[in-house]
UniProtKB/TrEMBL annotation:
Protein name: PrsW family intramembrane metalloprotease
Organism per entry: Arthrobacter halodurans
Region Disordered, residue ranges: 1-31
Record-annotated membrane-spanning stretches: 48-69, 75-96, 108-137, 157-174, 181-200, 220-242, 249-267, 279-300
Record carries keyword Hydrolase: yes
A Pfam family: PrsW-protease
Length: 407
């Protein structure tokens, strides 16, 4: 049966009646994946887990230190408060990451690095930066200098190293700007969680009104600050991955740090240097910056969807997918309809995996067409085609659909 002769929408468009049965063709890849590629992916998965365990251990030590400094009761209360902005950030990152979700292990690594290791590095390096700053600018306001110079430099470098760690150990899933934004945002959210504990505990000691003010300002009005800063570093490294320029990561890393540090500087110093009161600072600077960031991410997501549809169209023309499959895997309405159909049979997870693999396949195809890392990309393409076939058959088996094959 030729792909062009099949018509098989995977879910009813109007939502009524029983879903039609898919009749997907089976195509076998021309070659298998080499040992080097398999070992590389195994190393990536093992490296992610190992790094997560080590960073989690550091986070536990940070928690023990905080409990000893603040007291267990205070830490418990302010920790619960700090979970509120962390939850807001997690919801925002979930929205960004919906099209091609990143693995939970890599996201967990990003969060625990931000909440633990980056805080430790910040505390250690800050002392080394404070001394030369005091010598060079002895008359400067130490608190202001720390907020607008030291904090942006040290904190963004510490967080950026976490994004770089994910870039290396979870390389098979870090392949574009959106991925970088998600990982950078996750590191920033983790860092903000621990930082909020410190701020909330200080305000908590001063009384109810001060605690409420700090919680509202940091936890509700500007929970995404660190997410936005570190997302720049992730975005730049994602560009390196999408352009097949992983070997030039130092350049892209520095290019990402520059706007991250500049944004942090502007955020911390805006109220002291540019505005007279908090609300003018918030309305005229913070809100427009946040709105621009949301608009930029929205446009990147639209571009990613269009790219997925175009590149899966190449595989459709070669007989790997049909028109209905491309619509199902590469458009928002198609994905929603397919997900609803799969959930009726308890196959929602299989459908998500199938769609995610297809999205990564499209990204790899784009790199091949642009001539970036072609040899490695072709090996990854073969692996993903094999994976897509297996996930397709698992999905068919789950819903009880008959298999249809062609050579």
């Amino acid at each position: 049966m030729s792909p062009s002769s099949q018509r098989h929408p995977t879910a009813p468009v109007d939502g009524h009646g029983a879903p039609p049965t898919p009749a997907w063709p089976e195509r076998r890849p021309a070659r298998t994946v080499g040992p080097a590629a398999r070992h590389g992916r195994a190393w990536s998965g093992a490296g992610t887990v190992a790094a997560f365990v080590l960073c989690s251990a550091v986070l536990v030590l940070v928690g023990v230190w905080l409990a000893g400094w603040l007291g267990p009761e205070t830490l418990f209360v302010v920790g619960l408060l700090a979970l509120v902005p962390l939850g807001i950030c997690a919801a925002g990152l979930w929205w960004v990451d919906r099209w091609d979700p990143e693995p939970k292990s890599a996201l967990g690594l990003a969060v625990v690095w931000g909440a633990g290791a980056s805080v430790v590095l910040t505390l250690l390096v800050s002392e080394a930066v404070t001394m030369p700053m005091a010598v060079l600018a002895p008359a400067a306001d130490a608190e202001l200098l720390g907020a607008v110079v030291q904090a942006p430099l040290v904190e963004e470098l510490a967080k950026g190293l976490g994004v770089l760690l994910v870039f290396f150990v979870a390389w098979s899933h870090f392949d574009g700007p959106i991925d970088g934004i998600v990982y950078g945002g996750a590191v920033g959210a983790g860092f903000a969680f621990t930082e909020n504990i410190l701020y909330f505990s200080g305000a908590f000691a001063q009384g109810g009104s001060e605690a409420l003010t700090v919680f509202v300002m940091r936890g509700l009005l500007s929970p995404f600050a660190h997410v936005l800063f570190t997302a720049w570093t992730g975005f730049a490294l994602g560009l390196a991955a999408s352009r097949g320029a992983r070997g030039r990561w130092p350049l892209y890393f520095l290019l990402g740090l520059v706007p991250a540090i500049a944004g942090h500087f502007l955020w911390n110093g805006g109220l002291a240097l540019l505005f007279q009161d908090f609300w003018s600072f918030y309305v005229l600077l913070q809100m427009p910056l946040f709105a621009c960031a949301v608009a930029a991410v929205w446009m990147l997501r639209r571009a990613e969807r269009r790219l997925t549809e175009q590149r899966l169209g190449d595989y459709r023309d070669a007989g790997w997918f049909t028109d209905e499959e491309v619509e199902m895997l590469a458009t928002g309405p198609g994905r929603r309809a397919a997900a609803a159909w799969a959930r009726r049979y308890g196959a929602g997870g299989l459908m998500r995996d199938f769609a995610g693999s297809a999205a990564r396949l499209a990204a790899v195809r784009h790199r091949i067409l642009r001539g970036h890392g072609v040899d490695a990309a072709r090996a990854e393409e073969t692996r993903l085609l094999t994976l897509v076939l297996r996930q397709r058959q698992q999905l068919l088996a789950q819903v009880g659909a008959p298999r249809s094959g062609g050579a």
